[in-house]
Design a protein that fits this description.
- The protein is mainly β.
- Helices cover about 10% and strands about 30% of the residues.
């Protein structure tokens, strides 16, 4: 199997060949800060199957054992790199819906409302057009999912 992905601006792209490992959500405070989010959705990848097809991410040593990779151009959080191998942010994959988390870690730091997010009122982006008219004229500069396959074959 081959999985591709990258950051929001497209400066960092990757290809993973082989079977993905366990997909998880980590609620620890370090992951919350690294992702600027309630939790970090990650999937472990085979180290020998991970190839950066454009630039490699910039890295920050977040602890004595872990480095975090991110795009230095747009700031997208990309990796969790520990002695037991790398993990990549699920949202950075071109097809994140195909990677379903199976376990949650660091639940001692889980925010009290995180388990109730599914109960909040919701609406589509289109339904918000009246409240936010700028959305009708919005032009995205985000790198598209499923890029040209030739670009991700390059090593």
């Amino acid at each position: 199997m081959v999985h591709t992905g990258g950051c929001q601006c497209g400066a960092v792209r990757f290809r993973v060949t082989g079977t993905l490992g366990r997909a998880s959500i980590c609620h620890c405070r370090m992951c919350q800060k690294a992702f600027g989010h309630f939790y970090a959705p990650l999937v472990s990848v085979p180290k020998d199957g991970l190839v950066w097809t454009r630039r490699e991410p910039k890295r920050f040593q977040s602890s004595s054992h872990v480095m975090r990779g991110f795009c230095e151009a747009c700031g997208t959080p990309l990796t969790y790199e520990a002695p037991d191998g790398p993990a990549i942010a699920i949202g950075a994959f071109d097809d994140p819906a195909a990677i379903e988390p199976t376990i949650q870690f660091g639940i001692e730091a889980r925010l009290p409302y995180a388990g109730r997010l599914h109960a909040l009122p919701d609406r589509t982006t289109d339904a918000d057009m009246d409240a936010s008219p700028f959305l009708a004229e919005l032009v995205s500069y985000q790198h598209p999912d499923h890029p040209n396959a030739d670009e991700d074959r390059q090593a």
